[in-house]
Amino acid sequence: MQFSFNMEKSWKFVLLSCLVCSFLASSSAQTCLTQTFSNNNRYSNCSDLPALNCYLHWTYSQAAGTVEIAFRHTGTSSSRWSAWAINPNGPRMLGSQALVAFVNSSGVAHAFTTSIDSMSPSMQQSDLSFEVPSLSATFENNEMTIFAVLRISENLLSTSQVWQEGPVSNDLPMTHPTTGANVRSAASVNFLTGESGGRASDSRIRRRNVHGVLNTVSWGVLMPLGAIAARYMRVFKSADPAWFYLHVACQTSAYIVGVAGWATGIKIGTESPGVTQNPHRNIGIVIFCLGTLQVFALLLRPNKDHKYRLYWNIYHHSVGYAVIILSIINIFEGFDILQPADKWERIYIGILIFLGIVATLLEAFTWYIVLRRRKTAGSDKQSHSMNGANGVNGHGARGQGV
Q1: CA torsion angle 206 210 211 212 (round to 10)
Q2: Of 263, 267, 257, which is closest to residue 285 (Cα–Cα)?
Q3: Residue 41's CB: how many other CB atoms inside 10 A?
Q4: CA 359-362-364 angle, 5° bins
Q5: Which residue has better confidence, 132 or 237?
Q6: Contact 98, 113 (CB under 8 A)
Q7: Contact (CB, 8 A) for 114 and 82
Q8: What is the distance between the alpha carbons of residues 76 and 156, in angstroms, rounded to a whole number?
Q9: Distances 330 to 5, 83, 353 between C-alpha atoms, Å
Q10: pTM (2 d.p.)
């Protein structure tokens, strides 16, 4: 009995200790919840950022389309600058849209915006890719706080955030350290759901990039290649039926990869409640439906001599070209949403130009072959008629001679 009683006391002590530790860990992990501001502002969400003693507070107004933020950097000094930014391209410095603050030579906290467009930015004031209707900063008790109102689009509600700090010299922000906590200052942020964390950002951005790559390669490259093969290879008799199998292979592969990309987009959409990309989503649904109809139409393809083959050809060609045109439009919609590095959009434009040039040259060559064949066929027919006529007249002349 004594042993049982002691065991019960021990378990109670362990349980109480776990609860206390859990409470202390939770409290220490939510320092931002205890922070207040001199302007008495209150925010709906906050997050303890994982590096550089920084904290982010925000309130999202769906009606106004704005995010009101307060970024606080503690344990700093008047000789250092502080910055916070969002970057739709990923958790990195290049491409980030930054809010920067430092104490100038007059002893006043000065805040400004700057777009980081190179690995050696000038840190000079410049406009961002979105509006910042309000921006200010305070420096008190070795804490720099940046207050701002951001007017951002829906695709930026869930994005990457980066923050940084460095020295100031002659009222100019200098290069920040590139070791330790300064290279770990990146995470995700979802202004709508209130979530913040590094891994979520990496995973989400990776899925968005996979979605973009799959759809660009499938609908935007393989589909046009399949159409080019069908239109221009069939003119060569030696390429029959190879052109047909190549066409089917390109279109089937494009459909399979495209469905995978489409499903990835649906998954991303379900993970972002309240964030909808209506034009991109609606065009994507139409493309998926038309592509699926094309697959079923292949199974119902009539023979060449069937009376309905002409109507099937009209349907097949019309839907196929519609899918290609809509796909290209939607890919550029995706570029606007993802906002990747400019080189990726330029690469795709280069691919389209290349395919366009190839199609133009093949179109001209095809017409040359077709017209040449018609001319040859016409000459053969005329020659055959003349030979037939000569044969009759000759036979008649010989008959009269006999």
Answers
A1: 100
A2: 263
A3: 13
A4: 110
A5: 132
A6: yes
A7: no
A8: 29
A9: 70, 35, 17
A10: 0.50
